[in-house]
Amino acid sequence: MLSHPMPARTRRLFVVAASVLVLGAGAGIAACGQEGVSVPASDRQAADLFVEHCAGCHTLAVAGTHGSATNVRTREYKDGPNFDQRKETKACVLYAIRNGGFSSGPMPQDIVVGADAEKIAAFIAKYSGSDKTEPKGPAVNVSNCPLG
After folding, report:
1. pLDDT in tens, 100-113
2. pTM as predicted
3. Which residues of 107-135 are buried (b: 16+ CB within 10 A; e: fewer)?
4. In the beta sheet, which residues pair with residue 59?
5. DSSP 18-83
6. CA 16 to CA 28: how far, in whole Å?
7. Is the separation of the CB atoms in 91 and 147 below 8 Å?
8. In the chain, how long is the greatest CA-to-CA distance?
9. pLDDT, tens digit (0-9, with 9 covering 90-100), for 57-70
10. Which SS3 state, helix, strand or coil, does residue 2 take?
11. How many whole angstroms separate alpha carbon 110 and alpha carbon 96?
């Protein structure tokens, strides 16, 4: 409680400022997660599943997700592969989903199952590797996937 009443003009400014902050925050929350999805309507359901289940740990530009570390020095334990830089096959993605990844990391086994797992795997196989650059010299398979 204030020791003296707030002048009417100050009170109005306070109310206007608070309203602007609340409306601005609400607009930011409403737009969160939808602005970066850039796939055809036929792939939208798979993109939404990827965003819902995988966005916290994986990066994939077409789904608008940025869960992977961009700097190895600031990498966290939970940071999964950047699928813009790493091409995956459907079989390898399904293997990772069913087994919790490839390197006993923090990815839970069966994070999605059934048709949803199939949709996510096909989605990643279709769109992964968009920023992949091939190293100079002989081809080297760096994938951890035993199927791939």
Report:
1. 988 777 888 999 99
2. 0.67
3. beeebbeeebbbbbbebbbebbeeeeeee
4. 66, 82
5. HHHHHHHHHHHHHHTTTTT----GGGHHHHHHHHHHHTTT-EEGGGTEE-S-SSGGG--TT---BT
6. 18
7. yes
8. 78
9. 899 999 999 888 77
10. coil
11. 9
d(CA 131, CA 1): 57
For residue 94, give both structure tokens: 């399904």
Q: Which amino acid is located at 80 in the chain?
A: G
First to last CA, the chain: 67
Closest CA to 144 of 91, 79, 75: 91
Could you give the CA distance from residue 86 to residue 73 in angstroms, rounded to a whole number? Answer: 19
Answer with the residue of higher pLDDT: 60 or 74. 60
Distance, CA of 146 to CA of 148 (rounded, Å): 6
Token pair recorded at residue 61 = 């530009």
Q: Name the token pair of 88.
A: 């995956």
Distance CA 134, CA 143 (A): 13
Q: What's the CA gap between 121 and 13, in Å, rounded?
A: 53
> Please, how many CA atoms are within 13 Å of residue 115, restricted to the half-sphere of its CB?
1
Give me the domains of the chain, ranges plus CATH numbers: 41-127 (1.10.760.10)
Q: Token pair 């992964």 is at which residue?
A: 128
